[in-house]
Every structure is written in C-alpha cells, then in structure tokens.
Design goal:
15 helices; 46% helix; alpha/beta; globular; 370 residues
Amino acid sequence: MKRVLLTGLVAMTSIFSLIFFLTLPQFQSKFFQLPLLDGITESVVFSDALYMVMSTEIPQMETTLEENDIQMANLPKLLLETTSGVSPRNFSSLLDLALPGRNPDFHFSFVSNGVDELSMPIESPPPDFEELLKEEPEEEQTDDKNKTDQQEAEVYVYHSHSWEGFLPLLGEDKQKPSQASSTDNAKNIVLVGSMLTEQLEKQGIPTFHDRTNVTAALHEQGWDYYDSYRLSRKTVEAAMASNQKIQYFIDIHRDAQRKDITTTTIHGEPFAKLYFIVGEEHENYKENLAFVEKLNAQLEENYPGISRGIFLKDHTDGNGIYNQDLSKQSILIEVGGVDNNKEELSNTTKALGKVIGEYYKNAEQVTTER
C-alpha cells in the first residue's frame, strides 16, 4: 500500500513539475517558436487578410482598417508571399494596433492626464521601400548643415526610421497614415532632428546630426525594415569609436497616432506631444530610465501636458534594446504623429532643446565642481 501511495505521489509530482516547466514563457519561447509559422505570420498579405476576417467579428477593427488603408489580399498573392518568405510587416503589431492592452508586457513608467488604452503609441507600418527608393533626393539647404564636426560633438542626434513623414508637409495627395513616408528631409522626421540640433547649438552645446538616408542604406546592405536598429547601431558604434566625447545619443521618431492624440495647447500655443521609449532588454536599462525620468519631469513642469509618458518595452513588444545598451544617456523620443505640422513640431523641439540644454549644463557644472 505504501509503495502504491509513494508511486502515485512521485507520478503526480513529476506531472506537476512537467506542467510547470512547459508553461514557463522562456521555455515556450525557446522550444515552441516555429520559424515557418513566424515567416507566414510576418507576411503583410497574410496579416491584412486575417486582419480583415477578424474585423467582421470585432467592430473596432473596421475603423483601424480604414485609417491605415488596409486592403483585402487576393489568394494567389497570399500563397506567393507565404511561400516566398517575404516579411515586410509583422502581424503581431497589427493585433496590438487594434486591440490596445493585448500585450501584458507593454507598460509605462509615467503617463500624463488623458492617456488611456486607445491613445497608446502606435508603431508605423513598414513603408514601401521600392517607392521611397524612386524618390529624388532633395538638395540640402545650407543652413541645415552641421556646424559641429562629428569628432567635436558631445550630443549625437540620429534617426533609425528616417523616412517617417508628416502628412501636412507631404502635400494634398497624401492623406492616409500609410502614406506618411518620405526621403525628403524637409518633410520627414529628419526635419525635427535638424530643429533640435539648431536649438542645442544655439545654447553652445556641440551637436552632430546624422542625416543618413536609412532607406537607401538598408537597400545597399541588402537589409529590410526589421534591420533598422541593426543599421543605426552600426552608425552609433562608429560615432563612438571616432569620438569618445559624445555623451548623449538621441534617436528621434514620430508616432502613428492621429492629431487629437498627438497635439496639445500650452500657454495658447500648439505643441506636438512627445513620449520616450526605454528598452528593458539589457542589464543597465534602469540607468537610462532614471535619465529619461529627469528629462520628462522637467518637461512636464515647464510645459504641462507635452508628454504622453515614458514607455518601457522588452523583446515581446519591439526591439527591446534600441541601442540604449551602448550609453547610459541614450534616448529614443517620439515627437508628434502623422498629422502634426511644422509649427507644432517647432514649438515642441524648442521646449525639448531647452530642457536637454539645462540638463547638459547642470551636468557639466557638477563635473567641473568635482
């Protein structure tokens, strides 16, 4: 009898132990992730088709489909892309787009008043690289060039997604969020980087602005959208190797939310709202978080309502690192959204430049006193 009870106890313990290990997220991620399934679900056509089917049961998705210009794919094209391994857009990001709060790992350190699940950040869909590569590069204006040489800079501004554009600057023929992409630096996120660089330079802070055409650079490497941070990492590492004086690395993006969410009025002036992304997938992320929290607190104190928050992300909701493991003072800032105009972007950039400038000068003063 004792042997039977002991055998039963051992069997139950073994079963529960097995269940415990099988349900661990690390175990599931390592042993149950199927590359073939990943390849299929990353297909833009498969994603749009499944997304369309789901919209018939979830009314909220219908609005998202219209706003993001998603069309039903035909079966031959679906079969072609699922078998060819083409993956220009990730399906899981589409679910996040339509079902706020679906990912339990997406969270935030701070959120300003009025930010709820429906106004959470939205990642822009991958652009049409073939169309972007056809664009004729605009001649760079003389006053938009760097005044500080990269080897002398202490602040490094760059863009992992340099094509992210703003509809009001792109012309009347582009009205949908899915069309908000351009290699014209007077109409995309590079403009914001130029504005910030100018503000910092005016305060005597040596700043270098990297204006790499990421679309062309990825194409030259034979890479795609999902290699954007891999490319910008190479750029940042090269800058660090050539100049050890660089203290701050600022990667500037724009969100894909609409104007009612990305715009505010402060002291009677229109501002594009901003927010910070902090990657958690490296051991020193808390140092970056502490740095960003100081900037965010000062922004909110001087310009109440300008920030949408500080959002923490791991590998389940994006890159998870964003090159922030390379420096303790590395920032990823999302400035505005697809509908913000030049005035709103300029006002926000001035505010951001002022706060970063104050932080820089205070840090320099502490260093000097030591």
